[in-house]
Write a structure and sequence with these properties.
Blueprint: H1 3-6, E1 9-10, E2 16-17, E3 21-23, H2 39-49, E4 55-62, E5 74-75, H3 82-95, E6 101-107, E7 122-123, E8 140-141, H4 144-164, E9 168-173, H5 178-183, H6 198-201, H7 203-216, E10 222-227, H8 238-250, E11 255-259, H9 276-279, H10 284-289, H11 294-300, E12 308-311, H12 317-325, E13 331-334, H13 344-349, H14 376-400, H15 409-428
Parallel strand pairs: 3-4, 3-13, 4-5, 4-6, 6-9, 7-8, 9-10, 10-11, 11-12, 12-13
Antiparallel strand pairs: 1-2
Helix pairs in contact: 2-3, 2-14, 3-4, 4-7, 14-15
């Protein structure tokens, strides 16, 4: 058994996590067209609860039904009625049946709302997504009153999940979603109290933290997922992230999860997916340790004392142990391996040295066609294809209880696109 990974962790609010392994947030797409949790979503989280992690994070739970991250999101955009409360409670009960924690990741997609859901999503400023394919429409700048209403919704959502039996919340301020958009000077061009200097750009996030804390009380875990950087010229920089982390600690946040990138610059695809010139800018020590954001967490540890979580790239137990002993992480987030091996945390705690990788199944281009990956459009298609493969595995686990790792990327893409089309058609009825 790995003594380091099995150690408990006491959070500033007093809550204790039984080990250092976390099932990271991954979008599931398994809610019904009304945004209500389903039996499939329960089945999926039951498997993960049995899988040995001390903490499970939900995928995006959206505070606005007009701004979904993808079809199939759970939506809590108002005080839940009895049916919704019961569905949330049943989900939370199943997801904690092994004694682990289950935290709700609360989010608003902002301009990263697909056009099929909202052709003109609200965002800090009217800055359109710079991606090929036309999947995202022209955003409309939020009014101050609308921003204040979104902040209110974060509080409503947090109170609802606590009442339903969730044991914590995580506010999503990374990956280019709404609160991340406010933080970035590339996407926040406002000249009012929510734009300009970093203190103004961080205002929406800090307002959300304050209302969520007021809604759940002092003894309930509140976490924030924060970009270490956007990795885009003129975007949210690491120096900004360090300052925001200090403000979050002062505001009473219990855990900061360090991540990075946006849809336009998806660093979570991993170092193996970076262009050669980008790889040269990634510290060799990080590549050796596997995890993409450990170096950022090490630097952040010099400015804050609250626990940090790092997700993205961990496969070897030795790398996870090194990240903790070196002070680069207090919690280890595991994502994609759990889409196929749901008990991966238990295997690590029992002594497994490495988690499986699925690169062979995910190769979009055969070796003789690798030159095609030089095209930005084709790289974008390939990255979404990989995501769809993992989406399909989660769907299979929820519906059948079993993954299908031999499925091709193309078959997975067809499956996911077909199911999303049906979901959208049902939602419009």
């Amino acid at each position: 058994m790995s003594d380091i990974l099995a150690q408990s962790l006491r959070l500033p609010c007093g809550v204790v996590l039984e080990n250092r392994l976390v099932k990271a947030a991954m979008t599931e797409g398994l809610a019904n067209p009304a945004g209500v949790p389903t039996a499939a979503l329960e089945r999926l989280y039951g498997l993960w609860s049995d899988g040995g992690a001390g903490l499970l994070l939900s995928g995006n739970i959206l505070v606005d039904g007009d701004h979904l991250e993808r079809p199939g999101n759970v939506i809590i955009d108002q005080q839940p009625d009895e049916a919704m409360h019961q569905a949330l409670s049943s989900w939370a009960k199943t997801a904690t049946r092994n004694g682990n924690h289950f935290w709700a990741q609360i989010s608003h997609a902002g301009r990263q709302t697909q056009k099929v859901i909202n052709p003109h999503p609200k965002a800090p400023s009217s800055v359109k997504m710079g991606l090929p394919g036309g999947q995202f429409g022209e955003p409309v700048a939020l009014t101050v009153a609308e921003i204040e209403d979104i902040v209110r919704r974060f509080g409503v959502c947090a109170a609802a999940v606590k009442a339903a039996g969730f044991t914590g919340v995580q506010i999503h301020a990374a990956h280019g979603y709404l609160l991340s958009q406010f933080l970035s000077p590339r996407t926040n061009l406002r000249a009012d109290q929510y734009g300009g200097g970093l203190a103004n750009r961080a205002r929406a996030l800090l307002d959300c933290v304050r209302i969520v804390r007021a809604s759940v009380g002092q003894n309930f875990p509140v976490a924030v997922k924060l970009n270490s950087a956007d990795f885009q010229k003129g975007g949210f920089a690491f120096e900004d992230s360090l300052q925001v982390a200090q403000w979050l600690e002062a505001a009473g946040v219990d855990v900061i999860e360090i991540s990075g990138g946006t849809y336009e610059q998806p660093k979570l695809l991993g170092a193996e997916g970076l262009e050669e010139e980008e790889q040269q800018n990634v510290a060799q020590s990080t590549l050796i340790r596997e995890a993409y954001f450990v170096d950022f967490a090490l630097a952040m540890k010099k400015t804050v004392s609250i626990p940090l979580m790092v997700t993205g790239g961990f496969r070897r137990r030795a790398a996870m142990e090194q990240a903790i002993t070196a002070g680069g992480a207090d919690l280890i987030g595991l994502g994609r391996p759990l889409c196929v091996v749901t008990d991966a945390p238990a295997k690590l705690l029992a002594g497994a040295s490495e988690l499986p990788r699925f690169e062979a199944q995910l190769a979009m281009f055969p070796p003789w066609l690798t030159f095609l990956s030089r095209s930005k459009t084709l790289r974008t298609i390939a990255s979404f294809g990989v995501q769809y493969w993992y989406y399909a595995q989660l769907d299979l686990l929820g519906v059948n209880g079993k993954s299908e790792p031999t499925m091709t990327v193309f078959a997975a893409t067809r499956k996911v696109m077909s199911e999303q089309k049906r979901w959208l058609a049902a939602r419009r009825r």
